[in-house]
Amino acid sequence: MQLKQISIAAIASAMLVLAPVTAYSQNTTVPQGVRLGLNYTLGTKPGVLVLPLDSIGGDSVRAILQRDIDYDDRATIVTLDDSTVRGMIPKTGDAYNYPLFAKLGVVAILRPERSLTGINITMYDVAAKKRVQIGGFPLLDKVNSPAWRLSVHRASDEVERWIFGTSGAAATRVLYSGGDKQIWVIDSDGENATKLTSVTLAMSPAWNPDGTRFVFCGFTPDGSQIAGYSFVTGDLHWLSGTARGLNITPAYAPDGRTIAYASGREGGTDILVMQEGDASPSRRITVGKGSDNTSPSFSPDGRQIAFMSGRAGHPEVYTMDADGTNPSLLTEFTYGEQAYRASPDWAPDGRRIAYESRIDGSFQIMTIDMRDRSTKQYTSDGQNEDPSWAPDSRHMVFSSTRTGPRQLWVLDAESGRMRQLTHAPGARLAAWSPILKP
Amino acid sequence: MVTDSQTLTFEPMHPRHTILAVVALALAAGCHKPPVALGPAPMSGAADSLNPARADSIARANAARQAELARAQAEQDSLRAVRDREQREAAQNADAMKVLAATIYYDFDRADLTEAARSLLLAKVPVLQAKPNIRIRITGHTDDRGASEYNLALGLRRAAEAKAFLVNNGIDASRLTITSMGAEQPAVQGDNEEAWSRNRRSEFEPISGGANQ
User: Fold this and answer.
1) By the 8 A CB rule, do A11 and A80 touch?
2) In this predicted structure, what is the pLDDT of residue B210?
3) How many CB atoms neighbour CB A71 within 10 A?
4) Cross-chain CB nearest to A264 (options B148, B153, B184)
5) Domain spans of chain A, in order of start
6) How far apart are CA A235 and CA A261, in angstroms?
7) What ranges make up the beta strands (E) of A289-340?
8) B203 and B108 inside one domain
9) Are A331 and B173 in contact (CB under 8 A)?
């Protein structure tokens, strides 16, 4: 876990002296000769301390909460050694030594406790010196099963909402095309990588808005078709409304029924739309006139589509109305420059579109602000492609060769912090889920 | 049947009996189709000592035998000729199929045909014309640089360019189907121009009528 670490050794040694003296009364006097050695800077990120939970799976609950809060990138997890932190828990009631916690940089204390159906979590505001939130969270299935872990992730997201007013994005999963060219899914914290398909070749998965299904492009000897998979039934089927030929890059509209995808013929590749469950022929919404138009991504209100097109002679990102009218170049066109911009993904809050752009021969992750068209580059090492936003509109998952074989990485668009999500080579074309319900 | 008390003795055959035996042999020889590998021919000297009828019979038997030999030889020659022709045609067909299956290559991020690609496509035209039942699947490929989804579209454009060239040179469009694998099936692994240049290609695969037509 990558944390802004407090010098544990310094803290621990300080606490060994402090513990018997203070006994967690409200006495904050530091004995002479003892210095609390904090050798880190919190900055603007508040410190959060998660107390231990003594029950079956308690260590896992605490570890998941800590990791989710850390991966959320809005708080700093304060870590103390186990005996020290246990000594700081009052035997009864809420009589925490708040000033001491404040000196350690803790803003919020989270205390998980076992309940009949799962866990209760109590949050203490160190500055206000009082309990401010308590919530019950049922834990499903067996300890450390995927469903159980997802339950704990939901608790993490709710705790984030307590602290920051907006939910985290821990209770999510990421679909991707694995090195074996099949569709896989992995939890947002990198656990439970699971293969979902066994077809000739599968790529470009895309979630439906409620996270119960996804569509992808599957290859047959005569081309490729759009296929659907249900997490509820485990059913995998070809979508009957798909055109013949090469059919790729499907994407759900926010209505959860309309699917846009690219379909290639001799006259070029255009974007079509169809209704899931309706065998009526798909309707073409781009007129590429021999160019290639692929990778549609709906705006959150469903009224516009971002897509990539080679209509200007090289791949660029465009937007158009959802019915195909008013296409316009999104990214800046520089005369004489053979730019290569591709794989747009519209952020769930609608404010930015992420895409990949070739810069000095390598692909890098960029965003463009939808209000002022300002762009920002996030990566510079290796080939970085296929960005997909998390539901918090803050994090992105993308594929990168920065450490050698292509892997999925998660990027915090606010801080620029990155973490590796997958560890089997060849992962790419990721799609981050919406918040997943029980 | 020979009993213990009987003695086996040899008595010269009566001339009439001898003639009958020879005729019987000759008739038997005429009715029976000998195998291709035949035994030694009757001694002509023996016939000299026979009467004319018997000699004629032996001659006819010899003539029949010679005719059969000639017929068997002709049969063998014919079979050899057929086999040779089949081998020659198979070799020609293999050469034709090799021409038909020859891969063409492209420049980076381009779908238009190079001069080399045009030459290879032109060579396919007479083969396709000589084999009107053959149908071809053209699969476009790309190197692994660029967006993998966009590469699928680029691969299709490459296959479409190849098809358009063949159609413009007289091949019925309905005999040619196109598809793309983008960068998903590289011919060569590698992260260098040598590998990339061999992966930017269109492949040609007979999907029907490819055997000796």
Assistant:
1) yes
2) 61
3) 23
4) B153
5) 8-164, 173-432
6) 21
7) 293-298, 304-309, 316-321, 328-329
8) yes
9) no
User: Which residues of chain B make contact with A269, given a CB cutoff of 8 A?
Assistant: 153, 156-157
Token digits of residue A268: 């070029």
Full residue range of the structural domain in which residue B43 is found: 15-76
Contacts of A400 in chain B (CB under 8 A): none
First to last CA, chain B: 68
For residue B17, what pLDDT is reported? 52
In B184-213, the residues whose Cβ lies within 8 Å of chain A are 184
Q: How would you label B97-129 residue by residue, b for 16+ Cβ within 10 Å and e otherwise?
A: bebbeeebbbeebebebeeebeebbeebbebbe
Q: β-pairing, A352-359 with A362-369? A: antiparallel
Q: How many domains does chain B have?
A: 2
pLDDT in tens, A194-251: 999 999 899 999 999 999 999 999 998 778 999 999 999 999 999 877 777 899 999 9
Residue in the structure block whose two tokens are 């999104």: A330
Q: Does any domain span residue B148? A: yes
Q: Are residues B127 and B167 in the same domain?
A: yes
CB-CB under 8 Å, A181 with B149: no
Helix (H) or strand (E) holding A397: strand A395-400
Which parts of chain A register pLDDT below 50? 1-31, 34-42
Label residue B21 left, alpha or beta by phi (over 0 means left) and psi (-120 to 50 means alpha): alpha
Instruction: List the beta bridge partners of residue A279.
Output: none
Contact indicator for A155, A163 with CB cutoff of 8 Å? no
Query: What secondary structure letter does DSSP report for B27?
Result: H
Residue B167 and residue B124 share a domain: yes
Q: Could you count the other beta carbons within 10 Å of the beta carbon of residue B81?
A: 10
Sheet of A304-309, strands arranged across: A293-298, A304-309, A316-321, A328-329
* A340/B149 Cβ within 8 A: no
Distance CA A435, CA A211 (A): 7
Helix ranges (H only) for A322-402 are: none
The reply to whether B40 and B120 lie within a common domain is: no
Pick from A181, A314, A356: which is nearest to B184 by CB?
A181
Contacts of B16 (CB under 8 A, 6+ apart): none
- Beta strands at B201-208 and A76-77: parallel, antiparallel or unpaired: unpaired
> For B148, which of A219, A315, A428 is closest by C-beta distance?
A428
Judge whether A409 and A420 are in contact, CB under 8 Å.
Answer: yes
**Distance between CA A199 and CA A225 in Å, rounded?**
11
Closest CA to A131 of A120, A117, A139: A120
Q: Which residue of B has its CA nearest to A290?
A: B157
Considering the domain boundaries, does residue B24 fall inside one?
yes
Residue of A nearest to B160 (CA): A266
Give the CATH number of the domain where residue B164 resides: 3.30.1330.60
CATH of domain A8-164: 3.40.50
Cα(A378)–Cα(A400) distance, integer angstroms = 12
Tokens matching residue A13: 């040694």
Encode B115-131 in three state secondary structure.
Answer: HHHHHHHHHHHHHHHHC
Each residue's pLDDT tens digit, B30-80: 444 444 444 444 444 454 556 888 888 889 999 999 999 999 999 999 999
CB-based contact, B139 to chain A, within 8 Å = no
DSSP secondary-structure letter at A304? E
Radius of gyration of chain A (CA): 25
Residues B70 and B107 in one domain: no
**What CATH number is given for A173-432 in this structure?**
2.120.10.30
